[in-house]
Here is the input.
Amino acid sequence: MKKKFLSLCLALLMLASLCASFSACASRGTTLMKAGGEKISVNVFQLYLARMKGSLGSAGYKVNTEDFWNTYVSTDNTTNAQFYTRKVYEGLRQIAAALVLYDELSLSLSESAKDEVDAWIDKLIKEAGSKSQLNSILSAYGANITTLRDAALIEAKIAQLKTHLYGADGSLISATAKEEFYKANYCRGYQMQLANYYYDREKDKDGVTVFYTDTNFNHIAYKKEGEGIQAGEPDKFGDTTYLTADGKISYDIENGKVNYYYDDKGNHKTVKYTDAEMAARLEKAQEIANRCVNKPDLFLELAGELSDNADFNENYAPNGMYFTLGSASDETVFATFSEELFKMEIGELTVLSSDSGYYILMRAELDDGAWNDSANSTWFSTLTGLTMEYMLKLRTDAYLSRVEIDEKVLSGISIVDVEPDYYY
Here is the structure.
């Protein structure tokens, strides 16, 4: 299974957005970090590790197997266990640096913010059945109710710090700053699909798809003019047929309607292409990739004509797809697209094999202000948040040296030792 290497900025965002982050008092566990007026316990670190493990599990990684954690991710002999343990630690340390800045700015939580945290804790207790039952559940993640409450309070502090620095929902971040982040961190790509199946539909005696004049399917749509086309006998509806020079039906493919077949649930019935047909489709995909190098207009023209998912481009990616590295971290085709696009040069193409057939992927040049175009909204819902996280990281890098770490405590902790947390 391919690894999705999240950038430090994205790892920070993941950690911050999971809610409930820190434990604040030494009495609540051995202190791992000191950050301004906060003491962050080793239990908090374990809770973060459990959340990361749950996130990976949700993405399809085999987090309950030794083979996954013992797999080497680089030639320096780093394993998955070491990589993700360090990733969580780095994100936690970065947020600790932000807490130092929080104290320096003399910020403090309102009583209403604290009440919201208490209401959340009460909700969790009610869901679990009792305090003891919730503590029992949390123990698998190295946490307890007190840890969660302290964690949520510090998460609230981080949110308050962001609002103080960058405005509510990043309102103080200018378009210029967003454009700078976009140009430095995003890539753009086009795709087309040659699927390994097609939607079953009505065909004639020659195995050719039948086209009708409308969706009532009671009149054949004929192409009546053209070289070699001639009138024939009346069809089953009493209309004059039109035939090509080789005696086959001359259909109006451009304007006609296809009579697709559906199952009892209203889903398209599908038919798989044969191995020979798929070999021909692969050859076609490679031919397209070779023809379209540095020719985005030609690629888009062919995608409109040949792609089996042209409606996706029309409805969701009219100007292309936009990714930041690691933004599609789950095991989907978009995760593969993102990973491959960042390896490619602008104008380069590649053919990808998938469970649903072949994709032809092209990296395109970033267009100015794409993030601010409503037609591209599918791809930029997180841009403001990512920009804010990046700016906060740059702002707090100078405070990292003021975060005290107990290296002895740190050395004994691994993501392998906690259960995956999918909820808390």
